[in-house]
Amino acid sequence: MQAFSYQTATSVAAAAAALNDESKLVAGGQSLLPSMRLGLAAPEALIDLGGIADLKGISVSGSTVKIGAMTTHADVAANADVKRLIPALADLAGNIGDRQVRNRGTLGGSLANNDPAACYPAAVLGLGATVHTNQRDITADDFFQGLYMTALEDGEIITAVSFPVPQAAGWQKFKQPASRFSLVGVFVSKGAGGVRVAVTGAGGNGVFRVKAIEDALAANWSAAAAQAVKVSADGLNSDLHGSAEYRAALIPVLAGRAVGG
């Protein structure tokens, strides 16, 4: 690992001002630091967001749960309001990685990294959440733009995410046992915006929605309706853990289990 400078930001504005092409933001560090150890990332400076109190915490307003970008997975999983209003989100957060990852990793860090097998992107897309930054609000459908790619622009920092409270929601994850990332993960929800089904771990371009299952569940919200849909293997990942066809077969099965809860 090469030498780098390190600073703790005292505000979002200060962090944005210090950010440039040679620097990286550090949230929980659970993705960036391993990449640096492997030589896959070599920033000249790290800007730590951990000291910015405004980026932490969970609040409820009407039918929306707002979670600060620096809130850890463990805090989301343990929060009474999240467990009461969106239990599927609490379940998802409580099963990310291992204990260290859950206590250090953050919502904002996960979304900014947009790992193609990460869990949080499925919840954000599957619930139709809104990502707030220091510059604007971004809908979930616009935020995820491909493999490790997001709509974030230079100097833009995620500050919070607003999750609409659904009428019903569920999450199922078929994990790769060594990494605990999703071989396939499916988040389903039914709410004011309709039915949404988001899949992580299976797509070559990261998280994506499955319209065929959404249509089936809109007509009949049941496990049987979801599992009756045949998903194409075109464009899905194929590796030593599972073929594209295997992942395609898993998607409706997990969607049905998520509905059946």
Automatic annotation (TrEMBL):
The keyword Membrane does not apply. This is Xanthine dehydrogenase family protein subunit M. SUPFAM superfamilies: CO dehydrogenase flavoprotein C-terminal domain-like, FAD-binding/transporter-associated domain-like. One of its GO terms (molecular function) is oxidoreductase activity. Coiled coil: none annotated. Residues 1-168 form the FAD-binding PCMH-type domain. Signal peptide: none annotated. PANTHER family: XANTHINE DEHYDROGENASE SUBUNIT C-RELATED. Keywords: FAD, Flavoprotein, Oxidoreductase. InterPro entries: CO_DH_flav_C, CO_DH_flav_C_dom_sf, Diverse_Substr_Oxidored, FAD-bd_PCMH, FAD-bd_PCMH-like_sf, FAD-bd_PCMH_sub1, FAD-bd_PCMH_sub2, Mopterin_DH_FAD-bd. Transmembrane segments: none annotated.
